[in-house]
Amino acid sequence: MPKVAVIPQPNAPVELRELSSPNLEENSALLEVEVSEVCGTDVYLQQGRLQGVPYPLVPGHVSVGRLSKIRGTLLDVEGRNFREGDRVTFLDVHRTCNACWYCLVAKATTRCPHRKVYGITYGLNDGLSGGWAEQIYLKPGTRCIRLDAQPETFMAGGCALPTALHAVERGEISIGDTVLMLGSGPVGINAIILSLMRGALKVFCIGAPEGRLAVARQAGASAVLNFEAHDEAERLEWVLERTNGRGADITIEATGTPDAVVQAMRFARDAGRVVIVGQYTDHGPVSTKIAFNPHLDLNQKHLDVRGCWGSDFSHFYRSAEIVSDPVRSAPWAALRNDLDRYTLADANRALADVASRRVFKALITP
Ligand SMILES: [Zn+2]
Ligand SMILES: [Zn+2]
Fold first, then answer.
1. How confident is the model at residue 51 (pLDDT cuts 50, 70, 90)?
2. How many angstroms does the Cα of residue 59 sit away from the middle of ligand 2?
3. What three-state secondary structure class fits 325?
4. How many CB atoms sit inside 10 A of residue 366's CB?
5. C-alpha closest to that of 340 among 331, 352, 328
6. Which DSSP state fits 105?
7. Neighbour-count burial for 319-336, b at 16+ CB within 10 Å, e otherwise
8. Is residue 82 scored above 90 in pLDDT?
9. Which end of the chain has fewer CB within 10 Å, C or N?
10. What is the pTM of this model?
11. In b/e form, how buried is each residue of 230-267, taking b as 16+ CB within 10 angstroms?
């Protein structure tokens, strides 16, 4: 009888429940969870702010564990068999169809209308389908990825790592670029590390609170600014001072604040690039005080503005590879000191600590 933590309905506290172990279908598996996480998405799930969510549900969409039971065959991307006892993570997105217009023509599987996401759009009715649990049922067709890293090294990146990897890919960061990160949450921190790996010369970060800015500096940001103490004009001046008066080559917005989208454009240089990755939840329109001016903020600046939605298998796979590398994993290994751990029974406290940004990353260790 595996224990799970459940969000019964929007705005209700998390409850512990016991579920019966599933009967495994052909080519499926059972994962013994070692560690899952609490991210901003889980806070929004609890607040009922995501569309198409089937409550009650077990949150936790990115997890690491060991395969405790396999029925039939489970292959990795190289065609090798997984065995019981193997440590894996898995792509949280399931059942992209490889048959629709988005999958086949646009080659944008993150927009496939048939996709389901463990811990987000799979609910309790779909069985053990979230990571805040002792076990997860890996349905047929779930893409597992072997993990050679320590679970906590991978989870120091967690779901933010593939998301940030997608964002820096969209940003096409090149050697010598100056990158501005708006946001110092997990996506921003991971994107700082990955921007430097892609060859950025300098990464500046505007975020809050101070605890997270310290993590940003540790991740390699050459300068940080607390936005709570500086208005938009001061922030712009701060960016211009550091970029020969031009603005950043690439600005990545990872804040969750609509106004920051327009600010990201203003802080980028003319003919620069802007990636929007921080608006996973609908936070509504920009505020009236922002006064977006299409001519000044976008057209005349000759900006390249790109949205970035979700991540696909390639981003998960590369994430697992990079944190499993003895040299390249160093920044994530260092982040392990900034993790906070909670049991299933502590899930409500973990949610509150993430919502208040008191912690950098909260892990659930069932
Ligand atoms: Zn599709
Ligand atoms: Zn997440």
1. confident
2. 9
3. coil
4. 24
5. 352
6. T
7. bbbbbbeeeebebbeebe
8. yes
9. N
10. 0.95
11. eebeebeebbeebbeeebbbbbbbbbbbbbbbbbbbbb
129 close to 136: Cβ distance less than 8 angstroms: yes
State in Å: Cα 74 to ligand 2 middle.
25
Q: Are 233 and 251 in contact (CB under 8 A)?
A: no
Asked whether the beta carbons of 232 and 267 are under 8 A apart, the reply is no
List the one residue out of 260, 266, 267 whose CA is nearest residue 295.
Answer: 266
CA of 261 to the centre of ligand 2 (A): 20
Residue 67 reports pLDDT greater than 90: yes
Residues 118/92, Cβ–Cβ less than 8 Å: yes
Strand partners of residue 16 = 5
Above 90 in pLDDT, residue 341?
Answer: yes
Residues with CB under 5 A from ligand 1 (ion): 97, 100, 103, 112
pLDDT at 207: 98
Ligand minimally distant from the alpha carbon of residue 160: 2
Does 127 have pLDDT greater than 90? yes
User: Ligand 2: distance of its center to the CA of 320 in Å?
Assistant: 16
DSSP symbols for 344-362:
GGGHHHHHHHHHTT-SSEE
Joined tokens for residue 2: 């595996």
